[in-house]
Amino acid sequence: MKIISCKDLSVTILWWMITFMEGLCFTALVTVLPARLRNGWVLHAATSVLLDLAGVKVKVDGLKNICRDQTYIFVANHQSWFDSFVLCAILPVPVTFISKKEMFRVPIYSHIMRRLRFICVDRRHPSNILRDIDSIIALFRSGLSLVVYPEGTRSRDGKLGPFGRGAVLLAARAGIPIIPITIVGTQEIMPRGKYCISYGRRVRIFISDVVEVDGASRKRQGIITEEIRQQIAENLRNNPV
Predict the structure, then answer these.
(1) Run of H or E including 188
(2) Whole-angstrom Cα distance, residue 94 to residue 39?
(3) Which residue among 46, 128, 158, 207 is least packed, with the fewest CB closer than 10 Å?
């Protein structure tokens, strides 16, 4: 059993306190601010504070691949709760997320997620998300980009799981380009099933080239999904923590 250091324990207690207080502040802010501001600058500022408290240092490669005036579907591997904090802090465009429906039952945060226009998905029936395709397209037209974790859940051991093709299907239907993102090192901060922070970890983010999928056939969507997975897998192999 890993022994938790006094520093990590102190940081964890402070981090969860600040997270709770930020949640309360967010409840008020997201009610009055316009979408691009609350999903952009405000979300960036709040998550940057949480990363600083945890001593997380982030190095990003490939920011030049993102145009600030374009909306995207970002497809990333999923290792930790900190994945979303890191992406909100480093991406130069306002973003929202797909989240499992169980999270929409959590007090305070359910209100925040709805105001941040998170998309609710039932993991047992992920294809049902396409029933809301018109509202999702409206989300893109409002200037928000979408982050998707195609593994469907956080990795238990850091290994890359199989990808669902929902992100590519959604991109093809909405006519929105995809940008694959590889996240390295967040599992070391807070692995799945753990709630204590390991202070001072380093994270690498690799932002790949844009992938155009508009009008892709069902067969082509499957091929693109596997190509994105292989690209992320290669980045993980070549850049261990």
Answers:
(1) none
(2) 5
(3) 128
Contacts of 201 (CB under 8 A, 6+ apart): 54, 55, 56, 57, 185, 186, 188, 189
Hey, what are 235's tokens?
């980045």
Q: Which of 73, 97, 75 is nearest to 85 (CA)?
A: 97
Which residues are registered as beta bridge partners of 83? none
Give the domain extent around 199: 6-238
Query: Which residues, at least 6 apart from 34, have a Cβ–Cβ distance to it below 8 Å?
Result: none
* 71: in domain: yes
| Average pLDDT along the chain, 241 residues, taken 10 residues at a time | 77 90 80 80 91 95 95 94 95 89 71 81 63 80 92 76 88 92 93 87 96 87 93 90 68
Q: Is the Cβ–Cβ distance between 37 and 68 less than 8 Å?
A: no
**Residue type at 150 in one-letter notation:** P
CATH of the domain at 198: 3.40.1130.10
| pTM of the complete model beyond 0.85 | yes
Token pair in block for residue 34: 């316009």
Which residue's structure tokens are 């500022």? Answer: 45
And the tokens for 83? 């994945």
Does some domain include residue 1?
no
Name the residue among 132, 115, 126 with its Cα closest to residue 148. 126
Q: Looking at this protein, which amino acid is placed at residue 51?
A: L
- For 6-29, b/e burial (b = at least 16 CB within 10 A) is eebeebbeebeeeeeebbeebeeb
Torsion of CA 4, 6, 12, 13, to 10 degrees: 130
DSSP code, position 114? H
